[in-house]
Structures are given as structure tokens and as C-alpha cells.
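Progress report, Aim 2. The chain analyzed during this reporting quarter is listed below.
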Amino acid sequence: MSKKKQYLKLLKLPGRTNPVARAPILSKGGAHQKTRSAERQADKRQLRKLVAKVGADHGPADLIA
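Predicted C-alpha cells for the chain:
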């Protein structure tokens, strides 16, 4: 065996990665966005703020009409 072949054998170049073993979430990519649950929670917080604001304008006397 020539010295060049021995040297190349010692290098052990990295082989291909197994696409099945890779985490599929890593290949998703794309723009950064909030998750659906985060958007839903933000909507709930916004609704609670709005209800609290409307409720602050009206006192208990306004309920009796």
C-alpha cells in the first residue's frame, strides 16, 4: 500500500449524516414567529385588559337601571 493511501485511510473523512436520525424540528427554518399558543395567550391577555378597562368605567350603580 502506498504512503498516500495509508495517509488517506488515517484521515477518515466524515460520512453522510443519517437524515432519519436528524431532528425534524431543525430543518424547519423560516422566519421567526410566535407559536399559535403564544398568540392565543396574547389575545386572551388583550381581552382581559379590555374587559377590565370597560368595567372600570362603569360602577356598580350603573348596573341597576
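The CA atoms of residues 17 and 23 lie 12 Å apart. DSSP finds three helices and no strands in the chain. These observations will guide the mutagenesis work planned for the next reporting period.
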